[in-house]
Amino acid sequence: MKKKLTDRYLQTVKAPEAGRVEIGDTEAPGLFLRITATGVMSWCVRYCPKGGKQARATIGIYRTPGSSDPVVSLSDARTRAKDISAHAARGVDLLAREDAEKASAVAADEITNRTMRVVVAEYIEKHCKPNQRRWKLTERMFEAHVLPKLGDKPVSELRRADVIELLDDMQHKGGLTAQVNRVHAQIKAALNFAAEREYIDANPAAVVKKQYKGEKPRSRVLSDDELKAIWKTADNLNEPSRSLVKMLILTGQRRDEVRCLPWPEIDLEGKLWTLPASRNKGKREHVIPLSPEILALLEEKNEKTGFVFSVTGRKPYAGQKRLKEILDRDSEVTGWTLHDIRRTVASGMAALNIPHDTIGRVLNHAKGDVTAVHYNRHEYLTEKRAALETWARHVAYIVGDGRDAKNIIPLRKAE
Fold first, then answer.
1. What residues contact residue 190 under an 8 Å CB cut-off, 6+ apart?
2. What is the dihedral of CA 178, 184, 185, 190, to 10 degrees?
3. What residues contact residue 381 under an 8 Å CB cut-off, 6+ apart?
4. Partners of 55 in the beta sheet?
5. Which residue ranges does the record assign to the Core-binding (CB) domain (predicted)?
6. How many other CB atoms are there within 10 angstroms of residue 3's CB atom?
7. What is the pLDDT of residues 36-54, one digit of tens each?
8. CA 312, CA 250: separation in Å to the nearest integer?
9. Burial class (CB within 10 angstroms; exposed 0-12, middle 13-18, buried 19+) of 314
10. What are the C-alpha distances in Å from 397 to residues 220, 224, 300, 402, 411?
11. Is residue 357 packed enough to be buried (19+ CB in 10 Å), middle (13-18) or exposed (0-12)?
């Protein structure tokens, strides 16, 4: 039904007993009044943008039940409907454009008021979890040191002074040392993440200098006597602690790469361990030849499913802290970490005249040479196998398992 709507007429309109009725307005094309059985009267408009599809939308409430005053008057509804129709004639969906502008404004407001806590949560979820094997340590670092002080601050308001104040407090009030630099690095990384997504214009932590300058790279290398003491202590441990320590010493691979080793990565017949890109720091497949000594450790395992170093087979070994305490106590070797074993393997191989390049390949160090990384597909298995077998014989000699020193043949130095 269509008619020329008037304010007087609208005051007399009654609600239907059921359903709804719609009364079109002859003065504003597309405008109509919708009345429901509950007595709600709404202004609606039908329009068709040039070249598009017909659309229909509610543009306001005229009157609610029990009210005599209009919320949106007839005059305002006609003006709005005519504006929508005029834009539609030019091929513009005015309502859709307004919705997009509102959404953009809301998104901009969310970005402007996005707190450090929100950014850190997104950084952990979208960057750390996919790219860091130990992302939980990063998460705990933020929770312990950053979020209590800066968590509720919008990142758009974060200033260099805020970062410096946090790091100064950690060092001078909290008495922390190297941890200060770790936190600084993670704040910088999280804010780089925010800058890339345009949550902030620039990273305020990028120009903050290293706060704690006493930190030195570790250079601890175990002596032969210390390595022997640790090996002998491992001999008296229960499984899987015993074989885990020996595997670390014989392969030189990273602690968690060994600790979380699943049986499907091991090829006993082919004498190879294939470490997938997803499980190593370099994010590239790494093939480790297995020396007879390593194979002997693995073949002693009764169950060859699940994880190699595990109590139940279902979860990787998790007693590292207690293991290190026992090794320290019983071996009487102090001031070392499990990662120092890896450096000791590298140093020991070098002393056996194993070429530096081969040592790097055994330890899966990154290669800066583009040709080596992308085009040279030779995996140097022969060289790596020779290096690991030479190292294993050297370890056997050090720990004194009855082998003669003449069985250890250092590789010839390159001329």
1. 119, 120, 123, 142
2. 150
3. 272, 287, 289
4. 47
5. 114-195
6. 11
7. 999 999 999 999 998 889 9
8. 24
9. exposed
10. 22, 10, 21, 7, 16
11. middle
Sheet hosting strand 20-25, strand order edge to edge: 2-3, 20-25, 31-36, 41-47, 55-63
What pLDDT score does 409 carry?
44
pTM: 0.55
**What domains, with CATH codes, occur in the chain?**
2-93 (3.30.160.390), 116-196 (1.10.150), 224-407 (1.10.443.10)
In the chain, the amino acid numbered 328 is D
φ, ψ (nearest 5 deg) of residue 197:
-95, 10
Q: What is the pLDDT of residue 377?
A: 43
Question: Residue type for 398, please?
Answer: I
Question: b/e map of 106-139 (b: 16 or more CB within 10 Å)?
Answer: eeeeebeebbbbbbbebbbeebbeeeeeeeeebb
Q: How confident is the model at residue 177 (pLDDT cuts 50, 70, 90)?
A: confident
CA distance linking residue 34 with residue 62, whole number of Å: 9
Task: Classify strands 20-25 and 2-3 as parallel, antiparallel or unpaired.
Answer: parallel
**Crossing angle between the packed helical segments 381-399 and 224-235, to the nearest 10 degrees:** 80
The answer to whether 242 touches 234, Cβ cutoff 8 Å, is yes
For residue 185 the two structure tokens come to 């690095």
Cα angle: 160, vertex 166, 171; to 5 degrees: 125
In this predicted model, what pLDDT tens digit does every residue of 71-102 receive, in sequence order?
A: 999 999 999 999 999 999 999 999 999 988 88
Query: Picking from 63-72, 87-96, 244-253, which range would have the lowest pLDDT averaged per residue?
Result: 63-72
**Segment 377-391 mean pLDDT:** 86
Would the pLDDT of 311 be above 60?
yes
